[in-house]
Predict the structure.
Amino acid sequence: MKFAKFFPILKWGRGYSRQTLENDLVAAVIVTIMLIPQSLAYALLAGLPAQVGLYASIAPLVIYAVFGTSRTLAVGPVAVASLMTAAAVGQLAAQGTPEYLGAAIALAFLSGLMLLLMGFLRLGFLANFLSHPVISGFITASGIIIAASQLRHLLGVPGEGHNLLELLGSLWANLDKINLPTLVIGVFATSFLFWSRRSLKKLLLARGTKPRIADILSKSAPIAAVAATTLATWLFGLSGAGVAIVGEIPSGLPMPTLPPFDLALWTQIATPALLISIVGYVETISVAQTLAAKRRQRIDPDQELIALGAANVGAAMSGGLPVTGGFARSVVNFDAGAETPAAGAFTAIGIAGAALFLTPLLFFLPKATLAATIIVAVLSLVDVGALRRSWRYSRGDFAAMLATILVTLGTGVETGIIAGVGVSVFLHLYRTSRPHYAVVGQVPGTEHFRNINRHEVVVSPAIYSIRIDESLYFPNARFIEDRINAAIAQNPAIKHVVLVCPAVNFIDLSALESLEAVNTRLKEAGIQLHLSEVKGPVMDRLKRSHFLHDLGGQVFLTQYDAIRTLDGECARAALEARRCS
Amino acid sequence: MKFAKFFPILKWGRGYSRQTLENDLVAAVIVTIMLIPQSLAYALLAGLPAQVGLYASIAPLVIYAVFGTSRTLAVGPVAVASLMTAAAVGQLAAQGTPEYLGAAIALAFLSGLMLLLMGFLRLGFLANFLSHPVISGFITASGIIIAASQLRHLLGVPGEGHNLLELLGSLWANLDKINLPTLVIGVFATSFLFWSRRSLKKLLLARGTKPRIADILSKSAPIAAVAATTLATWLFGLSGAGVAIVGEIPSGLPMPTLPPFDLALWTQIATPALLISIVGYVETISVAQTLAAKRRQRIDPDQELIALGAANVGAAMSGGLPVTGGFARSVVNFDAGAETPAAGAFTAIGIAGAALFLTPLLFFLPKATLAATIIVAVLSLVDVGALRRSWRYSRGDFAAMLATILVTLGTGVETGIIAGVGVSVFLHLYRTSRPHYAVVGQVPGTEHFRNINRHEVVVSPAIYSIRIDESLYFPNARFIEDRINAAIAQNPAIKHVVLVCPAVNFIDLSALESLEAVNTRLKEAGIQLHLSEVKGPVMDRLKRSHFLHDLGGQVFLTQYDAIRTLDGECARAALEARRCS
């Protein structure tokens, strides 16, 4: 049983039927057609030779089919991870050198190992540290950076940079070098792809094409653009007119490779590898869960770590770049009717065929066409509306999203995501450091207690009852001390302080020591500190300390008990809906 | 009024009487006697000329007297801040160079500016990020490192290092170079100081000495040790026998200095300056609050930032090193009867007298005596029992404390405190990422709902009521999704999911989006999602989103309302204490 848990293939493989096979094959054909140009494009985005993109779409797909728990997730090189790869490796080596390729392989390998380790240690919760606003902001900013980085291929000008400022600056400086034939190809390919994505399928359906055929045809638009622009470049000799082409792509399947085992290198790429792992995992698990829910299937988050980790190790050992479960391709796979991960394995066979036989045909493929493919794909990642939605709901979440976007655009992907996580953790701690609290009084005629500022309630002048709507722990430990000190200093009539704890889920050592300090000070001032409505687990923990022993007052089951015991007359008066003096 | 708030001296200065003056003067004499050797010692610990320690005990005390809200806090160079200064500045320049002194001055200046800024922006809550276990572990580890760093002066051997391993390693390597006269002086001074701290006052009181005289005499033990060992070194010409002496200390008052305005330097010391600011502030505010509470006085935490910041700027501009409100000296000041910050100003006059007239007498003062002063002072900081107490109360707090101690001992003060903060924030997020939750049912005969695992309760098979005892936010957003998905997959009878929210103080955007995803999935499965007992502020925020509009089910004021509405028969059965089928 335990063993089978690590191999979900054993489960779905058993019920595999002829009908399933047919559905999986059709989906595989559609995804293969979509993946060929994308794989080439993302390899170029990562600064790697084009064939590496194809390689990364072979072994990882087969490996995911064995280990993955999602039936329809399609893994492979994706835009954001490719950009992060370029950013990380670009700091260590120059593009085109063996060191650059080696560092990319090491990055995929290390990130695979990290995912495997997280899977075996069940550390999937690490992904939680990326809050939704941070992920959303990061993906939007990455999309913008990627699109900007591809503009130079559309214009045929030199230039580079890892953030928006550098990219736009280098474009601006080279605007006089625009290559007209490149621009024409680029604008044509981009317009065609945008148009086909938006209207082609509708058009075909309106003309009476069968839905499945219409689907395949519209998904083939990128490959049609590749074919048309390659043909045009060859026919008109455009590469002589300055149009950059992909050039020779070695045919054949990937050879098994090992990452360079160089400790200094591994240390340098550790942080980017971790970030790629976590970002990739979050994207993978979100896509997988969304698709699984539509068919009432279940995803095992820890097993997904293992599957994605193994896929990345596989990507590294077949000479590729880091892979992730991609959103667009998974949705295409799902919509095309894929039923099992076998569809992914069939896709791998299709890509392997392309790597073996198609590469000579791609010699004259203009880089502008690949750039157009990327731009059209990534602009769908940009979600500026999310900023507006988060602003409306919560200023804190908005701040985290905006910080992630601005830092990513301004300085690059790694600092961007780290800044986002930092800001969201910081804002969370800041928020809980000033928790919501209410001084409470008894609602007349009842045994209920409510905020004295929001309700007509009865309070005993000798009793200060304060309800903290938050767990008590280090960020807010001092806050509570300050609140109680201030209340005591202002109200000389107070003889009892009651801490009402129904919303206190936890008291950590810092808060406990603050409460001990409060208790000691109150005792010296002749005031008793009481607790009421303490939850079971909190009480269990308090019993392990000296606090209850030293407590000046008592612990009451309910706040009503507290008031009845400490000022019986007032409690009775409140029940009869009178003011107690 | 606003203006006076920044100058607490205007408040206490008004009621200043002859009796107050007398008390303050006596306290000042005792503290001065204590501070002279300590100031010299901490300057040496920070790697600075001895007189710098005296300088740092003049201007800052006067400045704190003007701005501070504590009546009895004594600021000046302290052990931990001096160690942190040595660690930070030691990376930038060699001891004894003008660059070293300049960097120390810049550190004091920058840390003063940071504190002032935090004070004006009311950012005192930043200190909350240092949880009690982290501070406690950090101070314990610093005490151990400081004691270890002084051992070489006791033994008269060369050696250095910024963490325990380096220090012990360099001691071990130089053990053959022990200087016997130094060792004799060191052991004598250390034993005498330990003995006098423990027993001298008792002995004097037993012999009938007046308490105040006994107090002054026992506080004078360090200065007696200084006098005795200096005299012995001079008489027996021990400096010729290899005993390291303080040597010439220039007489006179500090000249006004300006820190070097060098951006590169400031960038390098920014992190240490921030850490020194925050550690110093936490120590200051803790001491101030403890002492103030004993006499029912109030401390203004934001004004303390300003006072400490101004004191540090003052320290920098009189050529000194970073200052902090010290625990030992403040307690001595308090016990000696100081009533107002004027006692601090009088102490400053005493120290200024020492700087003017006493320094020639200190030429033959052995460094071993100063090392003994430091060791005796810092060993009282070491609190190993805190580890045991935290282990008993909470494994998480224990882990944070242990990590702080080990990393500080193993790598040094800066990484130690950063590691401690990192671990405590991480553990906090980890804990809230797996919040306590309970599936609840109705307690028979009541309208109350309790955990089905802890109580005999009635549940409707069609309704899954889950109470999450934690705010819903990014670290636990996915957890709730997973819990509900798992429950639905296991119980096909479920028609309604009710999220019972009395302990939910906040729902952030990540959690909201998770709830939206849950709602959508449940809807597609024909299951309704409901909420109950949602707090006012949470409800207000939800109304700003689309969630309530899209919600498949309803929002109920109480859980009983929910059950009555969704399964009236079951609710009635439960009230009659029957099982509902």
In short: DSSP finds 26 helices and eight strands in chain B. Residues 114 and 501 of chain B are 41 Å apart (CA to CA). The first strand of chain B starts at residue 75 and ends at 76.
